[in-house]
Amino acid sequence: MVGATDTVFAAAAACLACDEVAAKLALTHAAARDFAIGRLALGETPAVTAIVAPGRPPRPRLVSPRELAQRGLGTREGRAALVHAVAHIEFNAINLAWDAVYRFRGMPAEFYADWVRVADDEARHFSMIAARLEQLGHRYGDFDAHDGLWEMATRTADSCLARMALVPRVLEARGLDVTPGMIERLRSVGDLDTVAVLEVILAEEVAHVAAGSRWFDWCCARAGVEPQATFLELIGRHMRGSLRGPFNHGARLRAGFSAAELAQLEGLGG
Q1: Disulfide engineering: 34 pairs with which of 9, 39, 73, 160, CB 3.0-4.6 Å?
Q2: How far, in Å, CA of 119 to CA of 15, rounded?
Q3: How far is residue 6's CA from residue 37's CA, in Å, rounded to a whole number?
C-alpha cells in the first residue's frame, strides 16, 4: 500500500527496478490499483535525463537474435520455446510501460493513465503465458532470449515522440502481424491451450498499440510535425527504412494506423 503523497513516478521507478518476477508483478498490480483510486499523484518532478536499467532476473540469458535456437512446433520442447519467447516479450513490455510513465514528464494525465493500464495488462499477460509455460514443463528463464525491445527503449530515451513511434507502433505492432500465424500453426498441431492464451493477448494488444498511436499523434501535434512523414522518417533512421510484412491490416487499423500509412508500409518492402 502506498501513501496519499506518493507519486506515480516513484511507483513506476519501484516497479521498473524490481528484479524478481513475482514481486514485479505484484508491485505492478498494486500500483495500477492505487493509481486508479487516486492514491498516486502526478506531482511536480524534474525531467529524467538518464536511462534507468530495468530490473530482471539473472535468467534468461540474453543473446543476439541470431543465436536463438530454432525449434519446430511439432514437439513439446519447440512449443515451450515459442511460449517462452512470448513470455519474454510480455516481461519486457511491463518494463517498457513503466519506463514510459517514469521517463516522460509533463504529459497529460491521460498519458500516465494509459501506460499504467498497459503495465497492468502486460503483467497479467505475462502471468497467463508463464502459467502455460509451466504446463509445458518449463519456467521463464529456461531458454535464451534477446533484448531488442529494451535496446529500442534505450535509443528512444530522450524523445517521447520517437518512443511512441518505434516501440508501440513498430515493435509491439509486429505482434499484431505475427500472432495470427502463430495461432494457426499451434492450432494445426493441436495446442489449443496456448492458442487460447494468445487469442486473449492478441485482442488486448490492439489497445496498447492504439495508445502508442494516440500519443504519437499528440507528440507530433506538440512538435508541429506531420505524423505520417515523421513516422516514415523515424523508420528510415532506426529501422534502415524497412519493415517486414505481411501486415495485419484489420488489427493495425483498429490500433490507429491509417489506410494511407499501411499502403506506405507495404511499399517499404524488406
Answers
A1: 39
A2: 10
A3: 13
Place of cell 511512441: 164
Running along the chain, 270 residues long, what does each successive block of 10 average in pLDDT? 66 94 97 95 68 81 79 88 95 96 93 98 98 97 85 90 96 95 95 97 97 98 97 90 84 96 82
The C-alpha cell at 110 is 491521460
pTM summary value: 0.93
- Domain 66-268: CATH superfamily is Ferritin, core subunit, four-helix bundle (1.20.1260.10)
Q: Which 8-state DSSP code applies to residue 217?
A: H
Q: Could you give the CA distance from residue 235 to residue 229 in angstroms, rounded to a whole number?
A: 10
Contact present, 8 and 41 (Cβ < 8 Å): yes
Sign of CA dihedral 89, 92, 96, 98: positive
Rounded to a whole number, what is the distance in angstroms from the first to the last CA of the chain? 49
What is the C-alpha to C-alpha distance for residues 221 and 259, in angstroms, rounded to an integer?
A: 20
Contacts for 244-253: CB closer than 8 Å, 24+ residues apart: 244/270, 245/177, 245/270, 246/177, 247/177, 248/176, 248/177, 248/180, 251/176, 251/177, 251/202, 251/206, 251/209, 252/173, 252/176, 252/177, 252/209
